[in-house]
Each structure stands twice: as C-alpha cells, then as structure tokens.
Amino acid sequence: MPSSIRALLLDIGGVLLTNGWDRTSRKQAAVTFGFDYAEMDERHHLTYDTYESGKISLDTYLDRIVFFEDRAFTRNQFKAYMFAQSQAYPDMIDYCKALKTVHHLKVGVVSNEGRELTEYRIQKFQLGSFVDFFVASSFVHLRKPDEDIYRRALDMVQVRPDHCAYVDDRRLFVEVAGKLGMAAIHHKSLDSTRKALEDLGLVLK
Fold first, then answer.
1. Minimal CA–CA distance to 174: which of 157, 191, 192?
2. Which domain holds residue 91?
3. Burial level of 103, CB count in 10 A (0-12/13-18/19+)?
4. Contact (Cβ atoms closer than 8 angstroms) between residue 110 and residue 133
5. Would residue 51 count as lying in a domain?
6. In the 8-state DSSP scheme, what is residue 129?
7. Main-chain dihedrals φ then ψ at residue 189, nearest 5 degrees
8. Helix (H) or strand (E) holding 7
9. Is residue 1 part of a domain?
10. Do the strands 133-136 and 7-10 form a parallel or antiparallel pair, or are they unpaired?
11. pLDDT of residue 203
12. How many beta carbons lie within 10 A of that of residue 171, not counting itself?
C-alpha cells in the first residue's frame, strides 16, 4: 500500500551534517586560538539567538564574542575555522535523496542556523541538489521551537501535517512537530530513522 507521506522535513545539524557551531567546536576554537572559553561561551549564549534569528551578521556576532578586544589572529582565520567544523553525513544524505526519488517526495529543511553558516553549508555540501526549500531561522526570523517556523514550512510545502514526516535530532523540536500533526521522528542514527520511515510506508527496495 502506498505511503500517505508526501513531504519530508529535515533538520540540518545532527541529521544531514554535523552541527555547525556547537559547544565542542567552541571549546576547540578556544584551545586552537588561545583565548578564554568561559568568557566567550557566556557572550555566545547572550547573543547567539540574535544571530540565529537573522538579526545580526556573522561579523557582528564575532565582534561580540571574540573580537571585542585585540587578538593575535584575524577574523578571516577564525571564520575559516568555524566553517571547517561542518562535515557531511553522506549515508544520510544519500538515503534522503533515494527516498525523494523513489517516493516522489517534497523535501524541505527546517533549521536553527545563522545566515552565513547556512549558506556555506548549503553550497559546500550541495544540499540544494535534493532539498526543495530551506526554512532557516536566519532566513525567516523565527526559531525552533516556535510553532510558527513549522507552520511556515507547511505553508511552503503545501502538504497536510499528517502527510508530512519531520526528522530532527532534538527531542523537544520533534515533540513540537508531533503536536502540530506531523509524523515526527527523533533522529538518533540512520538505521533508527530508516526503520521509523519504513513504518510510515517509505520503503526503499
């Protein structure tokens, strides 16, 4: 029997790619560039939501958390380090591409990420080759778990919530999508997500 799922909504960090700029990356940056992590992390938490919401640029974010005082390294060196933290999960990407082809799915991204990081990751890993649209927090000025960012994605995909599968590695974000009526899947591994999607009828033969 054909699946009722017509659209697949995906997170980027933790699902298709590694997280773009998480706590581990920030700690490593502090060691690599030789500055105080605790101070940077406090500043990060005070302003990162503003960056992810698209209200400030990456340069302004870096002014606030790193370049508020003279450093022995350049802004471009630090940006290059930030971007280099992103790595693909190629097996997951290939799986989503196959699902789209076999089941004729619409594929969208719903993510909390700053504009410059999002644009870099889309281009670097050619996510636009299979993702039809991107609802990134910095593009739409909404952040998960705000229900409106999910509703924006549903408006764009033009599929009923119960005909849409949502995949995210953050349990809270999965719970919100589920309460809106989507088939919400907590991504822990490719195998577990494949099993959950197969249960929805999205089988690859």
1. 192
2. 7-19+87-199
3. middle
4. no
5. yes
6. G
7. -160, 165
8. strand 7-10
9. no
10. unpaired
11. 97
12. 12
Tokens representing residue 59 in the block: 């340069």
Q: Which residues contact residue 183 at a Cβ distance below 8 angstroms, ignoring those fewer than 6 apart? A: 5, 162, 164, 165, 166, 200
Give me the pLDDT at residue 1, please: 62
Q: Does residue 62 sit in the same domain as residue 91? A: no
- Give the per-residue pLDDT at 178: 98
Q: Note the pLDDT of residue 205.
A: 80
Q: Are residues 114 and 50 in the same domain?
A: no
Alpha-carbon gap, residue 130 to 108, rounded angstroms? 9
Same structural domain, 186 and 154: yes
Angle at 164 between CA 159 and CA 165, to 5 degrees: 160
Q: Is residue 205 part of a domain?
A: no
Which residue stretches of the chain have pLDDT < 70?
A: 1
Residue 68: phi and psi, rounded to 5, are -80, -5
- Distance of alpha carbon 114 from alpha carbon 129, whole angstroms: 21
Whole-Å CA distances, 185 to 48, 94, 142, 148: 26, 18, 21, 19
CA–chain centroid gap for 10, Å, is 8
Q: Residues 94, 80: one domain?
A: no
The separation between CA 103 and the C-alpha centre of its own chain, rounded to angstroms, equals 23
The alpha carbon of 64 is separated from its chain's Cα centroid by a whole number of angstroms, namely 23
pLDDT of residue 2: 75
Domain CATH number, residue 28 = 1.10.150.240
Q: Is 75 helix (H, G, I), strand (E, B) or coil?
A: helix
Q: How far apart are CA 120 and CA 103, in angstroms?
A: 29
| Closest C-alpha to 174, from 144, 201, 134, 143 | 144
